[in-house]
Amino acid sequence: MALSFLADKCKSMHQLMQIHAQMIISSRIDDHFAASRLLTFCALSSSGHLSYAIKLFNKIENPNNFMWNTLIRAQAINKNPDEAISLYINMRRNGFAPNEHTFPFVLKACASLRSLNCCSQVHTHVLKSGLDLDLHIVNGLLRSYSVSSDIHTARRLFDRFTNKNLTIWTTMICGYTQNFLANEALLLFDQMISEGFVPNSVTLSSVLSACAQSDCLELGETVHVFIKTRGLETGVILGTALVHMYAKNGAILRARELFDSMPKRNIATWNAMICGLASYGHAEEALNLFRKLKEEQIVPNDVTFVGVLSACCHGGLTDDGREIFGSMKRVYGVEPKIEHYGCMVDLLGRSGEVKEAEELMKGMVWKPDVVMLGALLAACKYHGNVEVAERVVKQMMDLEPDNHVVYVVLSNLYAEAGRWEDVMRLRKVMKQGNFKKTPGWSLVDDVV
Questions:
Q1: Would the pTM count as exceeding 0.90?
Q2: Whole-angstrom Cα distance, residue 407 to residue 403?
Q3: Is the pLDDT of residue 32 over 90?
Q4: Is 381 inside any structural domain?
Q5: For the chain, first and last CA: distance in Å?
Q6: 141, 149, 152, 248: least surrounded by Cβ within 10 Å?
Q7: Residue 272: CB atoms within 10 Å
Q8: b/e per residue, 116-125, with b = 16+ CB within 10 A?
Q9: Cα distance between residue 445 and residue 448, in whole Å
């Protein structure tokens, strides 16, 4: 028994391995209590080693529920959701019944995988186990359904659950916000307040995100006043939510004041400010913030580059955009995504580098979407590039065969170039295709 208690007091893997060796020599390793202490340290301690825990677990004959739960929990919190689910399946195959300590971490793994099928199956097991009224499990189900984009099932669960606490309300509000259903999130928040629940920092962060999505500056300001009145600490998460809310609602000066006053900021805070500045045309200021990231020793991520490339696009800063895009992988190790290519195609197109934009688009591993093609077509129209426009229209028609507006744009380009035979040919194609003039098409053409 003394060795088991020593395992609880371990401070390093070196110490634990010595105790493990003594347990093997003294045959104490076959004792489940002793083995579970070793497993807990290896799997869950910050000084532990998960791979060692897995080897230890595989050597234990007939591991008990506690051991299964410990390893499932370790895999779930170490961002190995597939491994956590595999362990759960093996646990059931070996005849062990999951309990109230199993499901929260299995559901955490389901949420990480964003697998609706996985969540539904685990939900069935929860019902069969009679644990559908457990607060932690219900909270896990709400979160898992929400991140798997089944917000309707999450809401049904929420409505049926009578013993709601603040965490349950917060998870549901957060679920709506994550699914960009801001109005529903704000209505639920209003209901929560009317039922006497006092929001905490996590709740308010979600509400502020909803305010950012729905342009509710007034409500966001009210939440800010509530935070001050209650004396809630404006840490990184809540502070970032406030910066994001003000920036998205166009209150750039207020957002910048908050940003500058924050003693601690993470990359999400910087992204909120950079993207806000970019959205409202403050291109140089956004670039200056991006340059300061290096001084602060904060590593930018893919969201940062979407923001700063958008700033270059809005500000017409073509050379800066090229340099930043080129540095993404080379300097920062960030692989460009389709959003980054979209920003560059838009930037190059606006500056008249239509062929360069087309070549960049051809070099992508993805097929361009309608938004990217539309931006390039708009550039072709503005700069009178019929050659590239013809190719872009073909690609757009492959994606949206009924989108006659692109033919209208191309027809106008032909007309401006004096290519009247092509104008008549295209109009004949449109007529044969039974394309109908829809209300507002000329307005769309003007925008394009």
A1: no
A2: 8
A3: no
A4: yes
A5: 77
A6: 152
A7: 27
A8: bebbbebbeb
A9: 5
